[in-house]
Write a structure and sequence with these properties.
With about 180 residues, the chain is α+β, with helices and mostly antiparallel strands. The protein has a single domain, classed as Pnp Oxidase, Chain A, CATH 2.30.110.10. Helix content is about 40%, strand content about 25%. The protein has helices at about 5-25, 75-85, 105-120, 120-125, 135-140, 165-184; strands spanning about 40-45, 50-60, 65-70, 85-90, 95-100, 150-155. Strands 1-2-3-6-5-4 form a six-stranded antiparallel β-barrel. Strand 4 and strand 5 (about 95-100) form a beta hairpin. The radius of gyration is 18 Å and the shape is globular.
Length: about 180
């Protein structure tokens, strides 16, 4: 798959499947070593001012949450968080508020990029990277155009069960289903 087609595929998958799954509160069921470990970033559109949801692979190291802009600096979510670094992240275990910043330290960047790619499941292999076998020099070369982001937690974010989340949809669906089963 060429890069543009791959970006379109992930844009569709993320918008119509991954983001809604997390907003419904089903994020904990999505992460595994094959599909990867995913969180959803909530950024504010730099032009529109609207709330945007962007699923990304992540790693938690040393009290920080890290992610990687796999399509480089053209990724809209990356450009949005550069414009407004106060973001929220919906992780499978809960939501956090934080401040996003680019990682510039070479050693930290390499260590974190490797862990994120290990956590990314098949997505890392689609990018042509085996984070378990690639040398540091190869990894550094292949990811040089992929910004690594560190999120410094500042508080609790709003998750699926909070205002703006979609967990309520599951409750309504289960209630309707139970009523239907009882009344038929």
């Amino acid at each position: 798959m060429e890069s543009k087609a791959l970006r379109q595929f992930f844009r569709f998958l993320n918008r119509f499947f991954m983001a809604p799954v997390f907003r419904l509160g089903l994020g904990p069921f999505m992460g595994n070593p094959l599909s990867g470990y995913i969180m959803v970033l909530k950024t504010v559109g730099r032009k529109s001012g609207k709330l945007r949801y962007s699923p990304v692979n992540y790693a938690i190291l040393g009290g920080y949450v890290y992610c990687l802009a796999g399509f480089g600096q053209v990724a809209h979510w990356y450009r949005n968080l550069l414009a407004k670094p106060q973001i929220e992240a919906i992780l499978p275990g809960g939501a956090i508020a934080g401040v996003a910043e680019r990682v510039d330290d070479a050693a930290e960047r390499l260590r974190v990029a490797r862990q994120i790619l290990r956590n990314s499941g098949f997505a890392g292999f689609l990018a042509g990277l085996n984070a378990f076998r690639v040398t540091d020099a190869e990894l550094e070369e292949k990811t040089k155009d992929y910004p690594v982001i560190r999120i410094r937690p500042t508080g609790i974010g709003s998750g699926a069960g909070d205002a703006g989340g979609w967990l309520w949809v599951l409750g309504v669906m289960v209630t309707v289903l139970l009523l239907w089963l009882i009344l038929r």
